[in-house]
Amino acid sequence: MNAKSNALAFVVSTTAIFLLFIISLLTAIELVAFDLRFYQREYGKLDRPAAIGISEEELMTVTRELLAYVKGKRPDLNIQATIKGQERAVFNQREIDHMKDVKVLFERAMLVRKLLAIVLFCGLSVLYFLAGKNIFSYLFKSFVFSFVFLFILFGILYILINTDFTLYWDYFHYIFFDNDLWQLDPRTDVLIQMVPEEFFYDLVVRIILYFIGGMVILGLLFGFVHVWLSRGQKRRRG
Is the pLDDT of residue 78 over 90? Predict the structure, then answer.
């Protein structure tokens, strides 16, 4: 390959790795956000059943229905439960309206992931056309370059959320929501009682750990294939 083709291949491979990072991050968010075991552990850790006045079993049932709604497997959030000894609707209209926004945000995120996966496939096809069997060499080099940058970025993010999580959590809502429905009352609104700020801190940390862990595994895979192919090429030359 000439210098121009080599530079183009590196740009394409770096772009592909960047897309892979975004896809992996969205996947990590989905895995953690819909992990019922995570909710159960957090509810126990934060003593949510007692704070809400609901049994642990009913709280998990409400959680399953809430997540089913976000995934489009339930048409509404008209959920009944016994809270503080009274059979009642779990969520009020403000909470329901906010969850409609959350559902739309999730659906858009999953659509973005699908579109990026298509673009990634096209990018890898172009890279294979440019680099042939050296595709993993380019991907590995781009991965190492991008991962170092991303590791520093997520390190800064971790420091920031430990400095003032509330501030940056509010910024997230200002960016992704165009109303104030997310500002719920922890004294009366069950939704925020279920998942207080401490819950979301643990959720964000777990997403970061899932993402970084997945990227390390992927990097090791790229490295292994790169070394294996390089050794094969050297043996054939020898």
Answer: yes
Nearest to 139 by CA among 21, 13, 28, 45: 13
Residue 2 has pLDDT above 70, yes or no: no
Residue 232: predicted pLDDT: 64
Q: Write a three-state SS string for 2-41.
A: CHHHHHHHHHHHHHHHHHHHHHHHHHHHHHHHCCHHHHHH
At residue 186, the 3 state secondary structure works out as coil
Q: How far, in Å, CA of 92 to CA of 185, rounded?
A: 11
Q: What angle do CA 20, 24, 28 make, to 5 degrees?
A: 175
Q: Is the pLDDT of residue 67 over 80?
A: yes
Residue 80 in 3-state DSSP?
strand
Query: Comparing C-alpha atoms, which of 223, 229, 24 is closest to residue 140?
Result: 223
Of the pLDDT bands very low, low, confident and very high (cuts 50, 70, 90), residue 137 is: confident
Beta bridge partners of 80: 89
Contact 83, 90 (CB under 8 A): yes
Cβ(131)–Cβ(1) below 8 Å: yes
Amino acid letter for position 159:
I
Q: Rounded to an integer, what distance in angstroms lies between the CA atom of residue 222 and that of residue 144?
A: 10
Q: How far is CA 210 from CA 6, 24, 43, in A?
A: 33, 9, 20
- Strand, helix or coil for residue 82: strand
CA geometry: angle 206, 47, 96, nearest 5 deg: 75
